[in-house]
Design brief:
The chain has 142 residues and is mainly α. The chain has one domain: 2-Layer Sandwich (Nucleotidyltransferase, domain 5). It has 5 helices and 4 strands. It has helices at residues 32-43, 53-66, 79-86, 94-100, 111-140; strands at 8-10, 17-19, 48-50, 76-78. Strands 1-2 form a two-stranded antiparallel ribbon. A two-stranded parallel sheet has the order 3-4. The longest helix has 30 residues, at 111-140. The protein is elongated, with a radius of gyration of 17 Å. The termini are far apart.
């Protein structure tokens, strides 16, 4: 979403859900199907990044189905899978990885806080790759 961040609590039967969509100030939260067009527009042309992306995409798939439409075929990147690559054999929960890398997680297990933590985690992994690549290039020129 090009650095933009927004969150809307939706009014759904069952457990509360939180989705990335335009912030609303109404007293009654909108239904997921009412903010779905905004979600699709905001995520068009992006890669969905999440810690345990299969879980989050499964949730979204279910909500899209409930709204009468199919989940778009967005590319995705799972920071949990990346964590298993960077820290093989170690716990890969978002809280554990963030603690290991000194990333503030905020209110764990809320959609907005977990999304920000996953973005910060991805940023650390990209930074690590860039440093690795820069070191490898310096060694090649020696």
């Amino acid at each position: 979403m090009s650095g933009q961040r927004s969150s809307t609590q939706t009014n759904q039967p069952g457990p509360a859900t939180s989705t990335a969509s335009p912030t609303t100030t109404s007293a009654t939260p909108p239904r997921f199907k009412d903010v779905l067009p905004d979600i699709v527009q905001q995520l068009a042309g992006t890669t969905v990044v999440a810690h345990n992306a299969d879980f989050d995409l499964g949730f979204l798939r279910s909500e899209f189905h409930r709204a009468g439409t199919a989940l778009p075929d967005w590319p995705s990147l799972c920071t949990m899978q990346l964590s298993k690559r960077y820290f093989p054999g170690q716990r890969a929960s978002l809280a554990d990885i963030c603690k290991r890398l000194d990333i503030e997680i905020g209110e764990a297990h809320t959609a907005a806080a977990d999304a920000v933590a996953a973005a910060r985690l991805l940023s650390k992994y990209i930074e690590s790759e860039m440093q690795h690549d820069a070191g490898a290039q310096g060694q090649c020129g020696s």
